[in-house]
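Reopening this ticket.

The earlier resolution said the output was attached, but the attachment link was broken on my side. Pasting everything inline this time so it's all in one place.
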Amino acid sequence: MRPTAFSNPGKFYRGNLHTHSTNSDGHLSVEDVCRAYKDQGYDFLALTDHFVGACDYPISDTRPYRDAEFTTIIGAELHSGAMDNGELWHILAVGLPFDFAPTNTPEFHPIADQETGPEVAARAVAAGAFVAIAHPEWSGLTEADMASITSAHAVEIYNHGCEVECDRGRGLHAADILARSDKRLGFVATDDAHFAYGDLDAFGGWTMVKAEENSPEALLAALKAGAMYSSTGPDFIDIEMDDTHVHVKTSPVSAIILQGAGVSTQGAFGEGLTQASIEHEKLAKSPWLRISLIDATGGKAWSNPFWKD
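Inline output:
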């Protein structure tokens, strides 16, 4: 068995799925944000300004900045309703239509008579968007919040802006709880860049999407199919599972770690590892498995969970 990202046809494209411009609370114009990512060698960008009344409910138009080498996917960061801790939901919606109806969210805090976060996520999915739960650690997402989610494709496993600005950028714990509840979500790594401190919060987390071409339509379909992995540095080349082992090929790393539900893990460790065959008998009771990579500089990458059924 080979996970979707490695069995689907096409090639991997590097992109950022979460970033802001001066259309909401970012510090660069739409044009300058697109140029910054193109200049850094990214293949695509989703510019996801905050969809609130204080910003006139923007869905930023990045189409003028597409060319033969760089494309964009239309998106926004949706907000509506209170989480269990009383804070406003943050829902990433990529592939959102321009006519998506605004939520009743005049400011950056919840009010009465709003859709819930899960309700607006479901409406975005119905409108054709790829939906991800944004920065669960920064948001303080609780198990009650997770149980309420019925429509989403992915969870942010890494948010670079939250990591460098307040040390709350991870999503593995939330992802594991979601998986234990049989919510089969993929992973994305993002920047959430606002460019408030130069590029401190940019170019640190990205999603590698396997698609047949670098077009918005092909990338969106691949994201919905789970044909991606997340990274802050290393690259996956291949993953394949047979009855006894998971076989992994990567760029040079120092750790290749097999994980699943519960505390058991198996790994291969060394200098400049580019492949490993890891027995998965120790994780036989887990309904899903995933791989983490760590390179010599501390860069990490994460496969999506792959389910044994």
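Reporter confirms the inline version is readable. The mean pLDDT is 97. Residues 4-230 form a domain with the TIM Barrel fold (CATH 3.20.20.140).
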